[in-house]
Amino acid sequence: MDSVASSTVNPQGSMGLHQNNYSQSINNERTIVHVFKFFRDRYVFKIKDGGLQSKDSDDHDDAMTTTDNEDSPLETIFSINLDDLPYYCKLIVLSKLDASDINHLSMTSKHWRAVCSDQILWRELLYTDMLKWPNIGNKSIPLLSLAEYFKTTNTTAVVCHNGELPNIAYDLYARLCSRNNVNYKALYFHSAYQRVQDHTFIGVKHTSNDVETSINNLSETQDTTLAATQTFPRFLRSLWMRMRSGNGEVIMLGPGMESTNTSKIFSRLLWARPDLLMTVRLLPGSQDGVGSGVELEFKGEKRFNLIALYSGNHRDRAKRSGMDRLRRSNILDAVEQNVGEDTSTFDPYLPAFKLHETVLNFLNKRTETYRLIYVVDATKNQSLQNLSCNRLELKALLDGVRHCEQGRDLNPSSILRRPLLVLCCVDVSTTERISCVEVSSLLDLPAITDRPWFAQDINVSNLNGLENALVWLFKQL
Q: Can you give the pTM of this predicted structure?
């Protein structure tokens, strides 16, 4: 240990503290060395007269010597009880564990139950884990809406006229920390429980989180149909499908269908996975040129009409992104807003949009069984401001759907029959992506409270994750 006390600090040492700022790295390493020196001198042994002595041998002047029958200083270090560590050192140890191990440790004693209930510990654990979640729903998301978040931060409407939000709106960690008077441990387990409920609902047997696996003790009988359990010739299965009640409709739109990274998703739905989706026939559009699509068969159990809505032709939409795409969209119309007209929302000065009249007429003619899919390009190397602007298009879509629902005098239970599925797409699995939780935050999905929604990570190349998303979508009705 003399070498530890007298050695110089190596800025590129083995402690993993490699940072771009050299002085900051030196300060961090010195802090950690100081902490362990304090721990050594306080709990293990001291350095006296150039030799090593235990803290109980202050009366002896000779240096500590060891024999075959005595413990060495290193053995003394490793024999220290974990309970003797300082509180902040315990938190450092716990931060390296997963939620399941922390939960088990909390059941050993009252002391460790108090340590394992530290709010900062669970807040950091929640933030770390939620970035790894491949899907999120309206009941499991732990974030506040942008309006509620701005109220907690006392932020005024300092939003630019081009649709950009303040910088704090893009800080996912700040949004999580803004939840005042909340128990982060309870929030973590609530989100985990709700995600298990979603996985059980769509039939996912294995989850990526140990806590969710331990929560998922109740088995649910799978909803199997005759077409799913038996093998029939295709023409008999097709006849059986047509004898069932009318086909559902899925309206699909969003910037992910027009982005250069993920624009192939619609064609991939038609031909990439015949085991998952089988193309039946093409559907012509209406007289206004809206509503063209294709009829698909999902896993031999469900036929539906997939209708695509694009903001423009192929040549024009390839050049647009962010707010420019919304202003020049063929399915949206700009709405003139007077300054100070609506102060109940967090962005009264932002450009507002509504659905074009032809799109509204198209929705008015739809049956009550249509569903919504919003496609987003979740590639990492893009502007978060452009991605966040798409919340205005999503808001215009939902406002138009609500207008059609209210025009038919539907009761609240019928309104919930129009679920929203958000596909967070990247081109291939190796592409670095924005997590679905962050996409949900940028699109302000927590503000949608009148219908169920579900966000799922998708790989366009192999459509990985699409099956779970479509199962959730079709089970909503």
A: 0.76
